[in-house]
Amino acid sequence: MVHTGxxxxxxxxQGGSRKYHLTCNWLRYFKNDRDRRDLIxxxxxxxxAAAFRAPVGGVLFALEEAASWWRxxxxxxxxxxxxxxxxVLRTLIEFCRSGKCGLFGQGGLIMFDLSSTVATYSSPDLLxxxxxxxxxxxxxxxxxxxxxxxxxxxSIINERGAxxxxxxxxxxxxxTSMCSYGLPWLASCTQCPEDAVEQCPTVGRSxxxxxxxxxxxxxxGMASLFFxxxxxxxxxxxxxxxxxxxxxxxxxIFFVAIYCLGLVTYGIAVPSGLFIxxxxxxxxxxxIVGTLLGSISSLDPGLxxxxxxxxxxGGTMRMTVSVCVILxxxxxxxxxxxxxxxxxxxxxxxxxxxxxxxYDQIVVMKGLPYMEAHAEPYMRHLVAGDVVTGPxxxxxxxxxxxxxxxxxxxxxxxxxxxxxxxxxxxxPELVGLVIRSHLLVLLKGKMFMKEPVKMSGSFVMERFxxxxxxxxxxxxxxxxEDLHFTDEEMQMYVDLHAIAxxxxxxVVETMSLAKAALLFRELGLRHLLVVPKTPxxxxxxxxxxxxxxxxxxxxxxxxxxxxxxxxxxxxGG
Length: 573
What we know:
- The chain is 50% helix and 7% strand.
- The chain is mainly alpha-helical.
- The chain has 4 domains: 1-98, no CATH class; 126-187 and 229-366, Clc chloride channel (Orthogonal Bundle); 371-388 and 509-572, no CATH class; 394-499, no CATH class.
- The strands form 5 sheets. A 3-stranded mixed β-sheet has the order 5-7-8.
- Helix 2 packs parallel to helix 4 (72-96).
- It is elongated.
- It comes from Triticum aestivum (Wheat).
């Protein structure tokens, strides 16, 4: 749902889809980096709000996990988005109450209502909850470690093409089916409780007491977990007043099965997430701990299941505020707030000592140049000029068409500094920065001159509209291979002053790399120009991009830099 929300937002941010005739003129106003980023953030918030019926949790998820650059305007936009989601959901749920939608729309906005339980807790309960948080942190760290190994194997299999992806999916599906159907045979039948609130054994698709090969008046506890939708299985585990419903062995086998199936299912070519399997596994071991500690704790095993789910979410996702609010909105149990907060913080702290969060690990695995919110300690020992590499390609203010075309063909760079040189100026002078997409639009317009003369900006803008330079959608936009020029045109000149960003962000070459990294991230930059400190040198030393701040790049340049040594030295100092 998060991915779907982000995809819809991205489609709106690129002006719709011409292929499917879903375009509107007013959408073109969003065709820029900032608005597209904001829309995708709001899309993520909408996805969480719709999936868990948690509008505030959706906003906090976007803040904690999705957005790198958060500001007050984005807060109310995300809040407005999730408010609309909540209203639409509520309307559809009311419409579906009449039974017109089949199994869709059952239940209200609160999915696992625990508000009827009165949670009173004492010191022994807090010790049990601290233990639960520690277990959640250990299981979460182990889960992320194993998932990292499995996803690396899956990526090798998936790279072999569609047949390998389909075969892997079929194998995992068969294993899941065998576990779901085979394991309940290991469980013994239990007599229906006389004080059962709902019908026992269950008639229909969902319920707490599945019959599964048992005689009348008996139910199979493990089948009640496996032969339900995940939502109903979580509801069964969260249910209070059912301390004796599940055998210890059934819960243990179910936990091992869900833990392992969650590991092998994530990463195959199926739109499945991690949230629900993690909540399910966490609720199971929470209930196990609650049952084992029943003698010293007065809390219901159903509430332990909720805290177990929170601890496992904290241990794998490493989110705190958003998970806390999502769980509260799911269960409507405000009295559990202090305990959920405590267990989340403990599990996150324990798991952080082993490895990173699951999403951070996947970003690293995909090789995406994601910048952390803080600068690494070893960056304090370097300056901006140290990490600038490669031959710098600059353009003159009035440049030959052939030189621009050659530069665009032989490099994949996105930004090029523009430098005015004599005779246009007395000394070389940095004009600004021009980006690839704008250069391609200018070249396509073929406003070339035979002599290198500076033109007025208004003359250029008469030929182009502002929307000609708007950001293209993914996979769209001009490419240099689409443009063709005659030999005569290649010898002509084009004026770049009108399309250059004349106020790019710059730093002096002697600036600390740690400060440059913070500046780069906080401002959400794509290019940061490095200028010389001393006069009588070329006006630009190089360009810093996201790649230049990545640890692997810096370690390649300076193999002697060991972040662990610097960290311990700075701690000792």
